[in-house]
Amino acid sequence: MKTDSETVRKRYDRIAPYFEVLEAVIEGLFFKRWRKRLWAKVDGYHILEVGVGTGKNFAHYPGYARITAIDFSPGMLKQAQQQRERKKVVVDLELMDVQALYFADNSFDTVVASFVFCSVPMPLKGLKELHRVCKPGGQVLLLEHVLSSRPPLAWLMHRLNPLVLRLFGANIDRNTVKNVKACPFVSVRVDEQSGDMIKLIEARK
Q: Which residue range(s) make up the domain with 187?
């Protein structure tokens, strides 16, 4: 089931005010510790966060860095702006689609995204944009939920994906590791603590 950016954007705009509540349980049980591990790998001064959402990563931002964060959903970005004001976070927030970034080539030391590429209609196009704006020698760090390697579970995920996509704008059957390896990175590795369906991917340009 293919979905264009405008359709996905509208879905995220719709759920933006309730997003924190909708993900509260899974965030507390699983995602929060993975976010901490993700941001521990960030280095360099100029950082780009793609898919800032409601600002769930704000607590992990390194204090020494200049951080730019983008999202393609005005509704989600509004939530992030409110979080920025409440938590006094220093970050430049921009409305932008990862499939067509406005930044110049070789702009960022590290590019970070968490649970984003399940929602990007053309993931390879978005990943190639991350490669383009990352500096030579820099890194792209992705925390993603992906298709299970277990055939029965993978079959079920494929079957459920159209419903999940229709309701939430997210795919649950993406093979993001394979997609990253299809881009011209010098190296791609998966963090050794990654599980079957949550992968922390480290790509070096």
A: 5-204
